[in-house]
Amino acid sequence: MSWRDEGMEPLDLGREQPGADAESVSAFTRRVKVLLERNLNVGWVRGEVSNLRRQASGHVYFSLKDAGAQLTCVMFRGDAMRQTVQLRDGMQVILNGRVGVYEARGSYQLIVRTVVEDGVGRLQREFEALKRRLDAEGLFARERKRALPELPLRVGFVTSPTGAAVQDFMRIMVRRGWKGRLVVLPAKVQGVGAAEEVAAMIATAGRLACFDVLVVGRGGGSLEDLWAFNEEVVVRAVAACPVPVISAVGHEIDFTLSDFAADVRAETPSGAAELLSTAYGQQVDRLAIAGDGLRDGLRNVVEDARDRVKNLKSRLRLLTPRAQIEQGWLRRDDLANRLSAALTSAHREKRHALQSVTRAFATATPQRRVERESQRLLAMWKRLQAASPQSVLHRGFVIMRDADGKPVMQASDVQTGAGYEAEFSDGRAKLRGAE
User: Which region is the signal sequence (predicted)?
Assistant: First the structure.
């Protein structure tokens, strides 16, 4: 392509001096600004939001792009506060505004006045309309919901085999000790043909009749990403599946029509894994407790039977002739011991009685009485001797008698010249009374 094809004329440096009528950058940019802002009527522009930035001033800056181009956009604070749509990266929108030129950078931008969601609003309306229609048919009725099996050992998972959802699902099941069998039924989960593949796999799982539970789901994404699970063909396949279905699509905040048609909704595929492994773990615990109880009961029964057998053996052993003879010898020895003990006791009692009688007889003999009376007379004689006059004389006293032999009791009875006799312990002496 030459310069003539572009409609450009060559610069003839000989005709005029370059720069004689040159504009400044500011002047040229200002002419462009006036030209664009006055003559270009923007209207509505459709695209995807990216590089979204919210400034502290309240202004919002972002880019609007599609597959072939990108447009810089700004929405000033007043316009941003009026919007009902909350912008986010990846969001499909339709914008209305005017073109503006930012002279400092020499760039043009779209000054946004109005924001309308594109696609999401339409999809949301389709979602609500289909939900009302299927609900009216009874596909979401509570009485259609089936309980999950108590011990799910065969689980089918309709999802993308390369997605993170199935990896998270398997990791949780293994970590929580689930011992069943998981079969991944591969299907596209977004894009063209995804709904048909998911519905076909659900129908296949129903025909195989080899699963206890069927999980249908995928990881999180936008409404468009999850739309396959809002398609009528998928919803009807979930509702018609003869196997109990767990819908595990997206994140906790995401709802699809498959969630309403399924028997159980899990917030995420990981939540479905926790639900199934928890039910499995509870049943395993119940079986373990029942097994322990069965073993304990069986052990008790065996021990009771063993004790009864021992008792019966003991009783049978006692009934044998040899045991009877041994028992007879034991009884004879016991009676002999008892007789010997009784004879010994009786002999001891009789001997004690004889000793008591002997002692009583010994105390009752005449000789014993004579001895006792002799001792009593001796004691009386000793007392008599102690009180006799002779005993008094031996203690140093003197008995004085008058001529008639009468004892002189007082000194006033002594007469002068009268004869008296004094008796000492060793003899008598004649005395005469003096003045």
Answer: none
What phi, psi does 403 have (nearest 5°)? -65, -25
83: helix, strand or coil: coil
CA gap 223, 91 in Å, rounded:
10
Instruction: Tell which of 118, 151, 171 closes a domain.
Output: 118
Residue pLDDT, tens place only, 242-267: 999 999 998 877 788 999 999 999 98
**Closest among 28, 267, 299 to 165, alpha carbons compared:** 267
Regarding whether 252 and 128 lie in a shared domain, the answer is yes
Strand partners, 72: 63
Burial of 425 (0-12, 13-18, 19+ CB in 10 A): middle
Full residue range of the structural domain in which residue 165 is found: 123-283
Query: Do 189 and 160 contact (CB within 8 A), yes or no?
Result: yes
Stretches where the chain sits below pLDDT 70 are 1-20, 119-122, 318, 435
* Predicted model pTM: 0.47
What the block records as the tokens of 40 is 């270009």
Closest by CA to 229, choosing from 217, 240, 239, is 217
Instruction: Compute how many other C-beta atoms are within 10 angstroms of the C-beta atom of residue 123.
Output: 17
Q: Are residues 235 and 197 in the same domain?
A: yes
How far is 250 from 189, CA to CA, in rounded Å? 11
